[in-house]
Amino acid sequence: MRRLMYVCFFLLLLMMLAACGEKSQDEVMQDLDQKLQDMNGYKTSASMTLETGDEPRTYDVGVSYMQNEQNKYYKVDLKNENEEQNQMIIRNDDGVFVLTPSLNKSFRFQSDWPNNNSQVYLYESLISDILMDAERTFSIHEDTYVFETKTNYQNKNLHHQEIVLDTKTLAPRSVKIYDADYKELVSVEFSDFEENAEFEQSDFDTERNMTAANMEVSASAGNEKNNEEQQSRKDSFEVVYPTFEPQGAVLEDTNETNTAAGRKVVLTYGGDKPFTIVETPAAAEAVTADINMGKGGPVNLHTAIGARTENSLTWSSGGVEFLLASKHLNAEEMAAVARSMTEPAQAVK
């Protein structure tokens, strides 16, 4: 009996010592705040899976981030081996850029991206979401801290998120984003994280990155096959209709014409929320097209990164280039219409 009491006391003592080693939520918050202030940069790789269509889509994501006294520099590389169109978002001293190497196009903005919304693959954005949510939940599971927070994503269907950090280093492990009914829509698994990685400003140069990406495109795809596919798209592509229409918008006309660049389709919506969608075959430019969009920024459309201005949204998907124009839709409504067109199984009418 006495031996059993000693064993129970010893086990209780071990549990108490283990509990004493755990940090409180307030202590972890202080560590995260300090991390945010001290960090000069990082490099990370991740796998992002989207559950927003009929079938999951997985993307390889690479992020490079550098901060100095002058600016914050970003390069986000999004790749899917089953899709011909990979894209990059770059921020440097010249602005914010959306690069589509397969089309040899670069959209340039004067934008405060990524500060205006949550960004699932940016570490400092995740920390900010944790710190800013006074109603967050916190738990410790084995060697990880698990937070559940509200979100501020461009897509308002992304309602709340679970962020998992390493207890020793506070490095990101994973993120899961859910809708209001707790259905998982996006998951990100981080495979490595190098804090305070060293970069040169040239690592964030758009011309250098476009050239390097074009070399990858040329190496991975047959030029003759690409030319045949582009010619085929000029003559024929499936017309894509939005499955989401803002309340008060009505499709009034579908007009098709043939131009020197190929088939052109114009969808005209009237009503209280009028807008126009132009669809043309996506074709690579002979030389890099640097398109200055003025004020605006990148928009996450699930399977593509769009380029937004005050009254328009441009993106490419499935070999088709889309332009949505309206003076009556706000940024959220334009993005919702575009997202409903980027999932082929759902969007082709």
Q: How would you describe what is shown here?
A:
The protein has 349 residues and is α+β, with helices and mostly antiparallel strands. It has two domains: 25-195, outer membrane lipoprotein receptor (LolB), chain A (Clam); 234-281 and 310-347, 2-Layer Sandwich (Phosphorylase Kinase, domain 1). 24% of the residues lie in helices and 40% in strands. The protein contains seven helices and 19 strands. It has helices at 2-21, 25-38, 123-132, 206-220, 223-235, 331-339, 344-347; strands spanning 41-50, 57-67, 72-79, 87-92, 95-100, 105-110, 137-141, 144-150, 160-166, 172-178, 184-195, 249-259, 262-271, 275-281, 289-295, 297-300, 305-308, 312-317, 320-325. The strands form two sheets. A twelve-stranded mixed sheet has the order 7-8-9-10-11-1-2-3-4-5-6-15, covered by helices on one side. It has a seven-stranded antiparallel sheet with strand order 12-13-14-19-18-17-16. Strand 18 and strand 19 (320-325) form a beta hairpin. It is globular, with a radius of gyration of 24 Å. Residues 6-11, 16-20 and 344-349 have low confidence and may be disordered.
